[in-house]
Structure to design on (616 residues):
């Protein structure tokens, strides 16, 4: 396993008047593809916002490598951490201009024209995410999935050490979900890019992530590999839903099956009282 | 990438030629029409009688003020729309015109302009505008951070209070003062003081220059405040400085030329339709187009019922509004065809 940590969180407390994260500690190894999972209102997004710096932290520390993230200037932070949100909302901006915005953290305030280097980097990542063919179209003309790919290309153009994603696929169909996650997986495998994403879908989290952090009621419930975290006990405990977990025959990763009320009743009838 | 810069150069050159044409038109048209060659002759030979006086004392100052005020109002609107990410914001939405009008009404009602001198009116207007800006700013900033949504609402509310207070002043004053107030509010490029005109022009051009230091944050803010922050932009400082800059511009314009509406709303919109959303070209093209628009509006205002003059605000509102509606309906038609 890799030893170096890319992101280390120590006893982090933060939040809003009505919701607090308490004493969150976790380590994300360098080069890992980590996922934050948990029910609605569990604190996933709050944790994410604390890491991105949108939310001020009350106590504790967030370290990038071995440096305190609070000591980073906004610019330096943007050179090291790139963020992809759920929606891009870029509107009337051409795809190329949008991706090029990833160079802002490297440009001097007075640089008026993009350098050839900027253009080269933006082009490279547009090609990597397969959106170069849309470069002259407006962002608003792209589909949701294509917009998300553009957002990833923009984030890569920042050439970060760590890529943070907030439910990047939650509003997409399965084709686009898998496509985007495959792109991320490829980046993780081939470039060694460290990725941390908030993700709702447990099966997708299981398939793609090598590290999972299960958050519940403002605390970390369990963290570890998908096999360690996605047990039916953990899921029933946190999500209050009856599930069955088995291995995906293709990948060996845990796969989660739901039990509907109707099915549960039928089983009860079939087996008498032997099933809880 | 190179193609984009070529387009920008093309648009900017086109607008500058249009501006030159509008200036020439404005210099030549009036109670006494002068041909372009006449103007050149008069300028070359210097002081020779009445034509020179008309040109240098009456028309030239108007044109300069038109360029300065039109450019400044349009730039101010562009900056505010960029900061608020709201296409309906214009310099006057935030109560700047209301404050200036109130200041002027106050000065007229209490006879300050007769007591001290006529320069007191622009001064009172400017003070009124800045008092309002200060109020809006303090009401919407908490612990060093500005909440731009609440700022907008605060601005609209304070604007209402200012205009109602002005109504109060107007309803209790003599009809002579009333006439003075209304005349001032309606706006005009007729400003006799050349030094005031120069100050306005220098300020307008200076602000255009300063705004270019913020072109990168403005471009990033197109994605929203949070995403701009993620790109390393110090959004709080940017928003504060640009708000103050835009307010200063609008405040000075209202103080010098009265309330000239719509320029700060329409021109930025038109420019977005024409040149796209990149602030590198938007800022300067808005400025130049605002100048063109106001210089031409002034030509219409002073020729259409010659020898009398219409308030320029009337022209900018009616002409600008109609042109805008036409363009909007055409562009929505075109997008329907594209999607149909």
């Amino acid at each position: 396993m890799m030893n170096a940590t890319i992101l280390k969180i120590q006893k982090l407390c933060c939040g809003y008047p009505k919701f607090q994260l308490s004493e969150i500690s976790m380590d994300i190894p360098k080069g890992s593809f980590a996922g934050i999972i948990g029910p609605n209102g569990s604190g996933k997004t709050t944790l994410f916002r604390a890491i991105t710096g949108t939310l001020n932290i009350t106590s504790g520390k967030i370290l990038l490598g071995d440096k305190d993230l609070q000591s980073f200037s906004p610019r330096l932070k943007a050179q090291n951490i790139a963020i992809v949100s759920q929606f891009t909302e870029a509107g009337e901006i051409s795809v190329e201009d949008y991706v090029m915005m990833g160079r802002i953290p490297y440009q001097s305030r007075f640089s008026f024209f993009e350098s050839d280097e900027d253009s080269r980097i933006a082009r490279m990542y547009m090609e990597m995410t397969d959106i170069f063919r849309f470069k002259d179209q407006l962002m608003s003309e792209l589909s949701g999935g294509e917009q998300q790919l553009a957002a990833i290309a923009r984030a890569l153009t920042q050439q970060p050490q760590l890529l943070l994603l907030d439910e990047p696929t939650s509003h997409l169909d399965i084709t686009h979900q898998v496509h985007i996650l495959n792109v991320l997986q490829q980046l993780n495998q081939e470039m060694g890019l460290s990725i941390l994403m908030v993700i709702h879908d447990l099966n997708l989290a299981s398939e793609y992530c090598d590290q999972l952090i299960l958050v519940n009621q403002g605390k970390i419930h369990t963290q570890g590999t998908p096999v360690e975290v996605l047990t039916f006990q953990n899921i029933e405990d946190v999500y209050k839903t009856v599930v069955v977990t088995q291995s995906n025959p293709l990948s060996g990763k845990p796969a989660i099956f739901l039990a509907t009320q109707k099915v549960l009743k039928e089983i009860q009838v079939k087996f008498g009282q032997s099933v809880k | 990438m190179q193609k984009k810069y070529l387009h920008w150069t093309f648009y900017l050159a086109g607008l500058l030629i249009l501006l030159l044409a509008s200036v020439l038109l404005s210099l030549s048209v009036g109670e006494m029409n002068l041909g372009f060659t006449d103007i050149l002759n008069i300028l070359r030979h210097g002081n020779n009688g009445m034509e020179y006086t008309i040109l240098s004392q009456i028309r030239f100052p108007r044109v300069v003020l038109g360029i300065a005020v039109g450019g400044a109002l349009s730039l101010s609107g562009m900056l505010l729309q960029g900061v608020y990410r709201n296409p309906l914001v214009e310099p006057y939405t935030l109560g700047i015109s209301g404050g200036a009008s109130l200041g002027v009404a106050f000065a007229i009602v209490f006879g300050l302009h007769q007591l001290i001198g006529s320069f007191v009116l622009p001064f009172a207007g400017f003070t009124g505008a800045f008092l309002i800006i200060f109020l809006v700013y303090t009401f919407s900033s908490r612990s060093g951070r500005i909440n731009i949504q609440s700022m907008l609402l605060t601005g609209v509310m304070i604007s209402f209070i200012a205009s109602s207070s002005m109504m109060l002043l107007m309803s209790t004053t003599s009809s002579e003062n009333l006439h003075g107030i209304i005349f001032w509010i309606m706006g005009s490029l007729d400003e006799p003081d050349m030094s005031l005109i120069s100050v306005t022009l220098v300020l307008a051009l200076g602000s255009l220059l300063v705004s270019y230091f913020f072109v990168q944050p403005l471009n990033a803010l197109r994605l929203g405040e949070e995403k701009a922050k993620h790109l390393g932009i110090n959004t709080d400082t940017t928003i504060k400085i640009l708000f103050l800059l835009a307010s200063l511009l609008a405040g000075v314009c209202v103080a010098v030329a009265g309330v000239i509406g719509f320029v700060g709303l329409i021109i930025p919109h038109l420019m977005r339709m024409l040149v796209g959303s990149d602030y590198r070209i938007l800022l300067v093209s808005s400025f130049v187009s605002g100048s063109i628009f106001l210089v031409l509006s002034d030509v219409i205002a002073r020729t259409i019922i010659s020898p009398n003059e219409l308030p320029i605000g009337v022209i900018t509102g009616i002409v600008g509004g109609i042109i805008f509606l036409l363009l909007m309906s055409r562009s929505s038609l075109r997008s329907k065809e594209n999607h149909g």
Observations:
- The CA atoms of residues 23 and 63 of chain B lie 6 Å apart.
- Chain B has a mean pLDDT of 85.
